[in-house]
Amino acid sequence: MSTKILALDTATENCSVALLVDEKVYVRSEVAPRDHTKKVLPMVDEVLKEAGLTLTDLDALAFGRGPGSFTGVRIGIGIAQGLAFGADLPMIGISTLEAMAQGVYRQHGESQVACAIDARMSEVYWGRFSRQEDGTWAQTDAECVTPPQTAADNSQADESTWFTAGTGWDAYSEQLEGIKFATEKSKVLFPDAEDIVQLAKFELAKGNTVDAEDASPVYLRDTVAWKKLPGRE
């Protein structure tokens, strides 16, 4: 049976779209932190035209559900929902952290990945993932938002080398120096739809889809404490 999944992600500075048609993947990706709304739909049109398909030919629409930039995650899910509604497609939300782990496997062939996205406010979106024999990923450290120093302090030593992924490693290099396991730097800084679509294939096979109206983001940071201006307490 043919599998056709469209994936898009705008959760970080990277804007990306990928279309999986059986084993062939059509991709578009560009680091464009302020132009997601301008670039993502043309990218969708391009990959569909390249494959000779329309939205109604697809089996599902996958999206980066976060964590990431609040605005970026909202843009991605909003556009994905609009496309899914129009074509009556089920949706699949994929962790941006897990997508980066998949990216490390795609680029380096490594199966143990420590992910840290710069979450601003002196925190990182953190998670560690181990690739399983069936191609899925298990969480060694559950996804969370945490100060990088806390991630280092709470890390557990083991004999493995973990490849790093994400902008958090460079943004908080000093705080993460105390990590208790060996690390090696990868090329992966951002999630990419090319990896999201591969993870979505497993979820679709399991029937793990939602209706468009039920698709939801994962911010990890549920509340943001803003300092009040003087006189406005």
UniProtKB/TrEMBL annotation:
Protein's cellular compartments: Cytoplasm
InterPro entries, per the entry? ATPase_NBD (IPR043129), Gcp-like_dom (IPR000905), T6A_TsaB (IPR022496)
Where is it predominantly found? Answer: cytoplasm
Q: Example GO molecular function term?
A: transferase activity
The Gcp-like domain, residue ranges: 30-227
Q: Name one GO cellular component term.
A: cytosol
Q: Name one GO biological process term.
A: tRNA threonylcarbamoyladenosine modification
Keywords associated with the record:
Cytoplasm, Transferase, tRNA processing
User: Which CDD domains did the record assign?
Assistant: ASKHA_NBD_TsaB
Top-level taxon of the source organism: Bacteria
> Which NCBIfam families does the record cross-reference, listed alphabetically?
T6A_YeaZ
Q: Which family does it belong to?
A: Belongs to the KAE1 / TsaD family. TsaB subfamily.
Protein name (database record): tRNA threonylcarbamoyladenosine biosynthesis protein TsaB
